[in-house]
Amino acid sequence: MQRFRLLLALSVSLPLVACGSTDEPAALPDAPRCEIALPAPPDHRLAPDGTVLRDALGRIVFLRGVNAGGRSKFAPFVPFDFASTEAGFQESLDRYLDRAAEWGVSALRVPFVWAAVEPTPGTDDETFLARYDALLDGAWERRIWTIVDFHQDIYSDVYCGDGFPGWTLPFPTPEPHHDCPDWFVRYSQDEDVQAAFDKFWTDEHGARTAFRALWERIAARHATRPGVLGYEPINEPHQGTADLKTWEQTVLTPFYTEMAALLRAKDPTALVFFDATGTDAIGAATYLDKPEGEGLVFAPHWYDSIALFGGTPSPSNAATYLSKWADKGREWNMPVLIGESGVPRDLETAGEFVTAVYDAMDDNALHFTYWEYSDSKETWNAEDLSLIDDEGQEATAITSVVARPYPRAVAGEAPSFRYDTAARRFALAYDVPTENGVTEIIVPERNYPEGYRVELSNGCVDATHPGLLLVRPSAGATRVEVSVLPR
């Protein structure tokens, strides 16, 4: 580590180049070094400002993270294996979070299933909740924000999915299981799954009333927890037997309005992340109307069906479809977090495709949490989307893309940035407001094993914080251009 910090002592930077350009940019002056204190916003929360998120210092924040993860869908409902003692849990948790921090992520979307929280009606499982709390707290100790996500797939584990407890169903249920590689077809082919959603949305047997009470407890529990950005009421909701368009407009949109009010009543500064449906995720289109409420962030998913179900997806698909979700954010004038996108680990072109996904996120100023990060020998329904295989080894073709430079927080306006994966060159430009602040750039150390250099149009940099580059403009500067490139 000390050798790496010494290598960071030099600096140099490149101006932004238009995408697709083959011209080599002219070098800018080497960036002087200076000592910069790590910024400490008075509050960990972020606030929407049109289509951007700002921290308590007014800086524009970009969230880049992972989901924690598919292993959280079944007992013991955490995203990693651990020894049966609490000491064993803590050791595995630290290892899990240290690896995420080493990738340079700034956010974790943290699934929980209702069946884990309240396995029997009226009684919450404090052991599970304490472990969930520990994950959230441990993430923030590493400066990783968290999103509390109620996760469901095909309603419940009694249908080979996850999410709602079996006691919310008024009819006999099978035993929970998670051994169905074709689980997703049950949305359209399993009448019991469809009936469960129908009864939830109409609150025919009180499940929706109990769901509201669950969220009141969850929001109250985390309202003052450092690092928690907010809540996602439901993952990939489904319409049951209803017409999709009619249901999204007349049921799902009002549901999000209702949940935003409920959550903000318990936690007034929380962000409320609302998802589109799993069907919407394939085509990046939705019938949702804009919900009413404060602190809203649109949080749809996008998956390339070719990548998931066989074949070689075109990298250009990422730019095409993710721009559609960015357009929806501009239409509604709110930030957009792509809560999920990912590919099977063994996809031959995984690295190329995931690079295109991240490039599209950068180009469209989207926030993103990759699906998914579990560290377990056992998988949910044989899914192979985790960044870690069942032997605990990284899918390096993908993790080398996930661990890439990006601006965590920009003390300026109109930021634009791009990372050239082949050249390992990151470039950021932004306009400087009247008061010069400190910009934070995540620079994962694995990208630059021999160190990196920085070029800067004006100002100075501090590269002494591991995995982080701090930039402070010169007095009177109106624009900053900074680049990071290998030594």
Describe the protein.
The chain is globular. It is built from 13 helices and 19 strands. Strand 8, helix 9 and strand 9 form a beta-alpha-beta unit. The chain starts with a helix and ends with a strand. It is an alpha/beta fold and 487 residues long. It has an 8-stranded parallel β-sheet. Belongs to the glycosyl hydrolase 5 (cellulase A) family. This is Cellulase family glycosylhydrolase. It comes from Polyangium mundeleinium. InterPro entries: GH, GH5_C, Glyco_hydro_5, Glyco_hydro_b, Glycosphingolipid_Hydrolases.
Cross-sheet strand order for the largest sheet: 9-8-7-6-5-4-11-10
Radius of gyration: 22 Å
Structural class of the secondary elements?
alpha/beta
Please tell me what the overall shape is: globular
Runs in which pLDDT lies below 50 for 5 or more consecutive residues are 1-25
How much of the polypeptide forms β-strand, as a percent range? 15-25%
Counted by DSSP, the helix tally is 13
Overall average residue pLDDT: 93
- Give the tally of β-strands: 19
Question: How far apart lie the N and C ends?
Answer: 16 Å
Percent of residues in helices: 25-40%
Largest sheet: 8 strands, parallel
Keywords: Glycosidase, Hydrolase, Signal
Signal peptide: 1-18
Protein name: Cellulase family glycosylhydrolase
Domain Glycoside hydrolase family: 90-375
